[in-house]
């Protein structure tokens, strides 16, 4: 997993509430057995019609096609618990999502896949939507170490994140990778347990 330190880039505004995981990655694409290849199907039903791009959808427009920061509304990622949703977002290039709230399982899955979901007050999110509307191509810089979001126009906000999750993102580790950091201690425990088991019988 790619480590997360700072991300600076264009903010893509997705002005919708209760965006569910079936909208993020429709169910017909869940037959793949790999964790890769989902980026091309991100928001498929919103991005395409009869295989052609819908020009009005935000991620089909410049300068948002390659935006690393997604700005959206409350309860983002609701619906099913499919981990394919953050897989698709990450592969598409989204590293940060700004919203007033997230669905719990989706929120947890983001951290496991190198995406930073940032909760900001609804009035701050509204202010950002207004700035993006008046300044297409508006950029923000997100610094995980300082837990800050800054814009060249003077915008600044801080965000909360659990220390454990922060450390995993900084190191580019998921929970399995974090466990494997203690591989020597795990092996030592197993060896001791093996000896204890042999002496007990």
Task: Provide structural commentary.
With 201 residues, this protein is an alpha/beta fold. It has one domain: Aconitase, domain 4 (Alpha-Beta Barrel). The protein is 36% helix and 17% strand. The protein is built from 8 helices and 9 strands. Strand 5, helix 4 and strand 6 form a beta-alpha-beta unit. It is globular, with a radius of gyration of 20 Å. The relative contact order is 0.16.
The H-and-E topology, N to C, reads as: EHHEEEHEHEHEEEHHH
Over the alpha carbons, how many angstroms does the gyration radius reach?
20 Å
CATH superfamily: Aconitase, domain 4
Helix content: 25-40%
CATH architecture: Alpha-Beta Barrel
How many helix segments?
8
What is the CATH topology assignment? Aconitase, domain 4
The major β-sheet equals: 7 strands, mixed
β-strand number: 9
| Percentage of residues in strands | 15-25%
Shape: globular
The CATH class designation is Alpha Beta
Average of pLDDT: 90
Strands ordered across the widest β-sheet: 6-5-4-1-7-8-9
């Amino acid at each position: 997993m790619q480590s997360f330190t700072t991300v600076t880039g264009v903010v893509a505004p997705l002005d919708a509430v209760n965006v569910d995981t079936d909208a993020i990655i429709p169910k017909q694409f869940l037959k793949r057995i790999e964790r890769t290849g989902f980026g091309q199907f991100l928001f498929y039903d919103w991005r395409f019609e009869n295989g052609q791009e819908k020009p009005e959808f935000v991620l089909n427009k410049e300068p948002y096609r390659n935006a690393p920061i997604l700005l959206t509304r409350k309860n983002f990622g609701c619906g099913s618990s499919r981990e394919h949703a953050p897989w698709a977002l990450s592969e598409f290039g989204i590293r940060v999502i700004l919203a007033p709230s997230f669905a719990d399982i989706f929120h947890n899955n983001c951290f496991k896949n190198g995406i930073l979901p940032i909760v900001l007050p609804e009035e701050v999110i509204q202010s950002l939507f207004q700035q993006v509307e008046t300044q297409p191509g508006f950029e923000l810089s997100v610094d995980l170490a300082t837990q800050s979001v800054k814009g060249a126009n003077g915008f600044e906000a801080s965000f909360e994140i659990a220390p454990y999750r922060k450390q995993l993102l900084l190191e580019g580790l998921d929970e399995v990778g974090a466990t494997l950091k203690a591989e020597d201690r795990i092996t030592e425990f197993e060896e001791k347990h093996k000896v204890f088991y042999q002496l007990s019988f």
